[in-house]
Design brief:
mainly alpha; about 110 residues; disordered N terminus; globular; two-stranded antiparallel ribbon; Cytochrome Bc1 Complex, Chain D, domain 2
Amino acid sequence: MRRRFFLSLALLLTGIASVSAAEVGTVFANNCAACHGADGSANTPQGRKLKAKDLRASKLTDAEIERQIREGSKSKSGATAMPAFGRDLTDAQIQEAIRTVKSFRPTEPK
């Protein structure tokens, strides 16, 4: 319990998390949160440096998110903006990451 408290505190102080790690998918936490943040805001030191996208504002379809995860993306200058994870993640892990990315979007009023 104490260890979890200090881990959560450390993540909050470094800007990496504003939600608990248990609330973020494992695949996302292990592969994406360093840049996109545990809350998807990209408000992390690495995210700001690389100009990572705020996933809370993403309007990409599932297919577009999947392509981005599998193939990565390049900046306008041709440099790698996001690495490809297609060889590192299973199909199930990619689907988990897609669900996590979409979970950051604000819920639409009914």
